[in-house]
Amino acid sequence: QVQLVESGGGLVQAGGSLRLSCAASGAYLRINAMGWYRQAPGKQRELVAVITSSGSSTYADSVKGRFTISIDNAKNTVYLQMNSLKSEDTAVYYCKAGIYGRGDYWGQGTQVTVSS
Fold this sequence. Notes:
Elements: E1 2-7, E2 10-13, E3 18-26, E4 31-39, E5 46-52, E6 57-59, E7 67-72, E8 77-82, E9 91-99, E10 103-106, E11 110-115
């Protein structure tokens, strides 16, 4: 079993910053990649950013230049530094981990609310 625990969400004013964390635990060989997705009310879940265990990252166009994803392989933790937040960034943010030989696992989600 693999568990993902997210933290760091909250309420912030537009232009502010937040840092999300997601820690993986459980019995597995290795993590291939970890990423962040978000889902706003009435919308489909969308990719925000993903990073491989080797450090290669991909971002949604809407967050490029504002968000930074990073991974600490020793701690099995992925981070999402979110700067210059906008009201349209308001959503539930979900962590996903791709586990070698096991498939994908999701966290429970953390709410990010940006007030304008």
